[in-house]
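ok posting inputs for the magnesium ion job
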Amino acid sequence: MTPVLEARGLVKRYGRVTAMDGADFELESGEVLAVVGDNGAGKSTLIKALSGAVIPDEGEILVDGERVRFHGPLDSRKHGIETVYQDLALAPALDIATNLFLGRERRRRDPLGTVFRRLDTKGMRREARRVLDELGIDVKSMSQLVETLSGGQRQAVAVARAAAFGSRVVIMDEPTAALGVQESGKVLELIGRIRDRGLPVVLISHNMPHVFEIADRVHVHRLGRRVAVVSPKTHSMNAVVGLLTGALRMADDGSIEEVDLTTGLSR
Amino acid sequence: MTPVLEARGLVKRYGRVTAMDGADFELESGEVLAVVGDNGAGKSTLIKALSGAVIPDEGEILVDGERVRFHGPLDSRKHGIETVYQDLALAPALDIATNLFLGRERRRRDPLGTVFRRLDTKGMRREARRVLDELGIDVKSMSQLVETLSGGQRQAVAVARAAAFGSRVVIMDEPTAALGVQESGKVLELIGRIRDRGLPVVLISHNMPHVFEIADRVHVHRLGRRVAVVSPKTHSMNAVVGLLTGALRMADDGSIEEVDLTTGLSR
Amino acid sequence: VGCTSTKSGSDDAAGDGKTKIGLVTKTDSNPYFVALREAAKAQADKNGAELVALAGKFDGDNDGQVAAIENLVQQGAKTILVTPNNSTGILGAIKKARDKGVLVIALDTETDPQDAVDATIATDNTEAGRLQGQYVKAALNGQPARSILLDGTPGSTVSEQRHAGYVESAQPEDLGTEATNGEQNKAQQATENLLQRATTVNSVYTINEPAARGAYVALKAKNLADKVVIGSIDGSCDGVTAVKNGEIAVTVMQFPKKMAEQGVDFAVEFAKSGKKPSGFVKTDTAVVTDKPIAGIDSKDTAWGLENCWG
Amino acid sequence: MTTRVSPSEYILRTPAIGPAIALVVAVVVFGLTTDTFLNVDNLSLVVQQSLVIGTLALGQTLVILTAGIDLANASIAVFSTLLIAKLAMTGTDGVVALLVGILAAGAIGCVTGGLVTGLRLPPFIVTLGMLTIVTAVSRIYAQGQSFPVTDGTLGWLGTTQYLFGQIEVTYGMAVMLAMFLGLWYALSRTAWGKHVYAVGNDPESARLSGIHVRRTVLSVYLVAGLIYGIAAWQALGRVPNADPNAFQLGNLDSITAVVIGGTSLFGGRGSVLGTLVGALIVAVLRSGLTQAGIDNLYQDVATGVLVIAAVAVDRFSRGRQR
Amino acid sequence: MTTRVSPSEYILRTPAIGPAIALVVAVVVFGLTTDTFLNVDNLSLVVQQSLVIGTLALGQTLVILTAGIDLANASIAVFSTLLIAKLAMTGTDGVVALLVGILAAGAIGCVTGGLVTGLRLPPFIVTLGMLTIVTAVSRIYAQGQSFPVTDGTLGWLGTTQYLFGQIEVTYGMAVMLAMFLGLWYALSRTAWGKHVYAVGNDPESARLSGIHVRRTVLSVYLVAGLIYGIAAWQALGRVPNADPNAFQLGNLDSITAVVIGGTSLFGGRGSVLGTLVGALIVAVLRSGLTQAGIDNLYQDVATGVLVIAAVAVDRFSRGRQR
Ligand SMILES: Nc1ncnc2c1ncn2[C@@H]1O[C@H](COP(=O)(O)OP(=O)(O)OP(=O)(O)O)[C@@H](O)[C@H]1O
Ligand SMILES: Nc1ncnc2c1ncn2[C@@H]1O[C@H](COP(=O)(O)OP(=O)(O)OP(=O)(O)O)[C@@H](O)[C@H]1O
Ligand SMILES: [Mg+2]
Ligand SMILES: [Mg+2]
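and the output
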């Protein structure tokens, strides 16, 4: 089966810092793929490349097996890829509903809408209320400005946006980082529901229990590249943590072995 | 024993939104106090009031039993209270070392420093490297600009700053939200070490395992006020989650009871 | 409205509400207009009238002058003295004012057509430029003039007229023309830059005396001040002093004070008797220099200092 | 828990409320201290006097909402008046001349926008450069002359009519009103408007949200340019004479109106209603101080103080929220 | 893994590298196209001509680094020249007059800073108001006159000396150099400088980091004011005559120098070195175009184009980093 979204040998350098160093990536249809790795491993850079927000220096990206070139976030959106960025990408001075529909506003169906391009503000607020309620986020009013929301409330808005509009792939960069216990649970549920809709989801998270609860496969990222792909069914949390810290290594045959101490210290 | 830091009946309103609604708070010396609560419960607002970043509409704050009035973050700093804010409060265009020492730069000891007020840039970089290494954060150079750091690296800088300078209380608002498994572990260790120095720590976190690993007491916040203080030794994670979602309630005698369904739905 | 206001004029002058005279100059920064304003104020005080002075914000601010005239009419000015930015820009506002019975007198600059205002009191700027050129040419003893030309604001009518007058009579070889906005600093800078290549210069045309002083400082730094004839226009006391000190060879004096006094007198007369002046009153120009040249009618600086303005 | 906003909150969130208070205060003070300020004629005049700067300020508002600034707006309008007047003088039909002038202004706006978006240059410096260039080109084009306008269409906006036989209004006012309503609608009721705010508020977020940032900014400079063209028409209605030296302070005056109107120079926050009020405040000050018999230089001092005061009033009326 | 920065990276991170390239390009082009531009005398003149705007731009840099802008700087300097010259004329000792003038400029800076920090008003509007007020006050004070300066101290900065018997230098250049070095040191080597950058970069973060935001901003306006006072001294060295109408475009010119120098108008990024280069670029353009024999108005067109080009060069020389 061709992967829905695939990347080969992505490289991205920032001056002396190499954020991605030949990263590969594969997302199968209908799965939840977790991407885990240390801080600074290059996870965000990877998914930014996949969503067109960053243009890699080298490497290629394929959607449904066909090579694509993303020049900006809009290009990936057109392919149905929807992303929650780590820094959320919300406009603080605009209200919740406006942020949710930013870039794909709905116009009214009546002549005011078709001729005068008037927005269906009420309809969008209603819909915004609906998707946020689904996440169980308690916000007073859809016309509240995003800058007045708590950290978690903001994150929920960004997650809701991606969930509502993704049609081929949904990518979430640490969507539950600022969320409470309940709200995190809701987001995991939501991810499950998206998968049930048949959409694959990429989930970046540092929360191993979450990862092991929801992921079908786990992509382990380290020092700018993929070092292993494991299944949470066959591998333990400790194995994954070992892999991402570099204490363990996946051999070519897929078995996991300890990195011997001298090599481990050489860094 | 008088609490090191105490608050009574704090209220803060933003237009129609009441972010704090009579919140109480008590921090005993030498303890790690976790503050938990749903998104939007008002935790950040509470600690902003305690650190002078927000001026409450009502209520009083006491340091070592004496009433204080904070007019800005500087006032609380002068009392030795050091805070990691949820949105980090770093200047993105400045480098790591400068951010770490912002507002309390070190001058050189030689005449250049005393007469011409020249900064000890090298010394500060060396010290910055030391505290970041302690947290196990892998950053290339102390002269790297904060805006080029990954989300987790930034958070580490903020945590390191508070840990290095707190002399009476250290407050951390979700310090591990963006951190990886290893780095989170290091921060928890650091909190432990701070406590061992005799400094009390306030830790806001949504991560129950972390909370239960490190906290001496747990302050449960709900709808703008404290609804319970429990000990992780005597209460289970489920009980705390129940309290913060409102499914459970702490009676005046300290016992925990289920909220009956009709009341639960009335909101 | 016109008749009644005319009639009540004398009562006003006697009682609490003095006769209001409006003055609208091009700007309130140019020393020339400041002198005009101060003279008008003094004359109004002497006659027990009230003078409200308004101005555009810069050379060419027609919109500001229109608003000023409108606001003066609203405020009940009986006479408006105006130095129009250009001859046609503000005719609409002038017409509206006159329709309401206000006496409008153009000072310094004519309108086109002239009968758009009740009367005009003005100098001839082209003539002033011509006089400057005439003197400079004569002072060069038969050498052809090789000039640096320092203009005012690019495109302003006065600047164009004076420049044209100078070119007509001096027939100079143009070694470089720069806009100085009549400012000493800019004139100095422009001259410095031009002198880098205009090594054969023997004369400088300047729009006004600050520009002339700027040119002088730049020439002096290159030890050229003695070899170059600087001409100017205006007749301010500073300018005449510069002529006296030998910094400037000649200046063509104008008489803003006379214009202002004459204008205020007309206004006072109108308030008293309702009599409107008409026609064109030409005020003089005088060549001021301490090195008179045969065939050119000129005054010395002693006379100049007695008659200068500012 | 409803999505309705209470009236009091609505007022507080309307960014034009502070400026409106300042305007009312100014009108009341001048009404009390002079006998001529509050008469109908004078009030009409004040509005007429605010038309050109007000129109320039509308375009300026758009640009400032995208976190830009336009120092060239008045010079573009002046160039447009020259083009129109010179064309009309050489026999071109008034309507055609007008259209050419407005489109030329739009084209210059496009160039500015192209430089800002295409080369990612700071708007301040691009428009400063354009200011120098366009002003010089106007002067070269005019060759030291100014051009009186006689064609009816061109002066049409200055034509006065009387409402109820009393209130003097001009077509210029109607055009201003129409433009204001159009912009208000476009900014608050269409996707384009949301994009303008989003781009000004946080360009990176807007980009990640899939907004065509460059296209939006470019469209703003284009629309602003067209508005400056209309400002040229308004100017010919006020002063039927195209002069290359006119409106040299129009850029700063229009920015003043925008800022007094409560729009943030950092982009993303503000409204055209505020700008309208801001332009009126400036005209009211100028007129009121004249009615009070204050001389020009002292008027300048007073205007400076009052402009600062107006913004201070705005700040305090909203300060309660924080 | 070392904390040393490699030379090439150091160059890239130095914000003045783009402007420096633009400057070199301009000098080379004018050197090749004219025979007079590259001679020693002329180069010295160019530097002298950049002194006043350069000094104003140094103060402007400080203000812009805090995300402010100062439209009143040149008018403050002009007021200061008048004060100094009038005092000296009425018999006050030159040194005393000079000190009074510089301190007065500092005091005006303080008022501006007080309004910006105390009432939290936008610097654009406060300084626009101050521009109007100070200009009017200068004109009222001068009463239509200008004041020649004869006292030696006051014109001292214009005194020329010859280095190696060839190169014409003035004391003004030395003062400029000293001021630049002082500011460079203060901004990059002291806590105050770090605070200025932090406040401009993100005022809320700076506040939460425990910086006295208001005090820092106030100090910036005070220091800037004092620098404008020194600019007044430089101006008297260049033109020994205090004129209320001088330097009317000094504010925009100084902002141009700052922006060409690579300092961001959004605050927190930039350097005084860049500003110095920026001021030189502007002077080089003006002089070079004159040497090339280009007419005034066409010079304006060229200056506009070149200013935009200079910033574009800066943008591209740094574009590689992103
Ligand atoms: N714009 C930039 N300029 C310079 N370096 C950058 C830039 N963006 C990212 N980096 C560097 O690239 C590396 C990878 O960053 P990235 O944000 O992809 O990490 P991450 O895996 O998402 O980490 P985290 O879990 O902390 O979010 C880091 O070392 C970071 O400092
Ligand atoms: N400046 C503000 N203006 C208006 N409302 C605000 C403002 N700051 C906070 N609020 C509101 O106050 C409430 C409490 O916010 P707060 O940030 O304290 O929550 P929190 O408990 O820290 O949540 P989280 O866990 O998501 O960070 C929220 O409903 C938020 O929308
Ligand atoms: Mg990341
Ligand atoms: Mg919070």
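notes: DSSP finds 14 helices and four strands in chain E. The longest strand of chain E covers residues 160-163.
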